[in-house]
Design brief:
The chain has helices at 3-6, 11-17, 20-32, 37-41, 48-60, 79-115, and strands spanning 64-69, 72-77. By secondary structure, the chain is mainly alpha-helical.
Length: 116
C-alpha cells in the first residue's frame, strides 16, 4: 500500500473501532442480531448514557444503523461498513508485512556483508 493509498484509510472509522468498549458493543450487536442502548448497558460495565454516546459514534461512522423500537432505538451492525473496515485492516496489514519483509532482507544483506 502506497502512502497515498494509506491516506484513504478512514481515520474516523478507525478511531471509532479503536475504542475497546465500542468493539465489545459491535461484538454484542453481532452476536444478538442487534440491540438497544438499554440491552447493551446491561451487558457492559458502563452506564446506559455512556452506551448511547458510544452508539452515536458508531452511527456517525456508519458502523451501526438505528431503527425505532418503541421508546428506544434498536441498533444493527452495518455489514457493508464493517466489511470496509475489515478490508482496510487487511490492506494495512499487508502493507506492513511487505515493509517488514524488506527490513528483513536489508538486515540479512547487511549481515552477509559484515561476514565478508
Amino acid at each position: 500500500m502506497t502512502p497515498k493509498q494509506m491516506s484513504k484509510v478512514d481515520d474516523e472509522l478507525w478511531s471509532a473501532i479503536g475504542d475497546p468498549t465500542r468493539r465489545q458493543m459491535l461484538d454484542l450487536l453481532l452476536a444478538d442480531s442487534g440491540g438497544t442502548a438499554t440491552s447493551l448497558g446491561q451487558q457492559l460495565p458502563v452506564t446506559r448514557q455512556a452506551v448511547a454516546k458510544h452508539l452515536a459514534v458508531l452511527d456517525r461512522v456508519g458502523l451501526v444503523n438505528a431503527t425505532a423500537a418503541g421508546r428506544e432505538k434498536r441498533y444493527h451492525v452495518d455489514a457493508a461498513q464493517l466489511a470496509k473496515a475489515a478490508a482496510q485492516l487487511a490492506s494495512v496489514g499487508s502493507a506492513w508485512d511487505a515493509r517488514m519483509q524488506r527490513i528483513k532482507q536489508l538486515a540479512e544483506s547487511m549481515q552477509r556483508a559484515q561476514k565478508k
